[in-house]
Amino acid sequence: MDAKPWWWKPLWIATLVIIVLSAPVAYFIQRIPLERVVIRLAPSFLMIGFAYYIRVIPSVKANRAIYIMLGACGIWGITFFGGAFLIKVLGLPKPVDIIGPWPALFLFFVPPLAFGGFMETR
Q1: Rounded mean pLDDT of 38-47?
Q2: Is the model more confident about 58 or about 37?
Q3: 51 and 23 within one domain
Q4: Does 106 share its domain with 78?
Q5: Percent of the chain with pLDDT over 70
């Protein structure tokens, strides 16, 4: 289980090369200011480092937390965008107009995230 496929190392190298090459393209060709290029490049490196860390140094606790968050975010996305789609298509009034802003905020954020988190732990 510890053996990596042959494309594992080239995948990470290619990912870093593509991101590094996109910075000069953004700066010189798209004329994006240098500070915006650097500000957008830093989170990319952080996310790649985090992804590499969780794949190379596996941990049961880290994997469980990641699966719970992915499930929670997935259920929230389905609930939020599905609800918005149904409200728009069916011409229903907005939930904020019916129950107020705070209850609507609670209903759209707390139960879907909790349900998705519990669903991923089973």
Answers
A1: 89
A2: 37
A3: yes
A4: yes
A5: 93
Tell me whether residue 2 is in a domain.
no
Residue 120 has pLDDT above 70, yes or no: no
Number of folded domains that form the chain: 2
String of DSSP letters for the chain: --PPPTTHHHHHHHHHHHHHHHHHIIIIIS---HHHHHHHHHHHHHHHHHHHHHHHS--HHHHHHHHHHHHHHHHHHHHHHHHHHHHHHHTPPPHHHHH-HHHHHHHHHHHHHHHHHHHHH-
Task: Note whether 84 and 39 are within 8 A (CB).
Answer: no
Measured CA to CA, the distance from residue 112 to residue 8 in angstroms comes to: 35
Residue range of the domain that includes 106: 60-121
Q: Give the residue among 89, 111, 109, 87 at the shortest CA–CA distance from 97.
A: 87
pLDDT average, residue stretch 113-121? 70
pTM of full prediction above 0.70 = no
Domain end among 38, 56, 74: 56
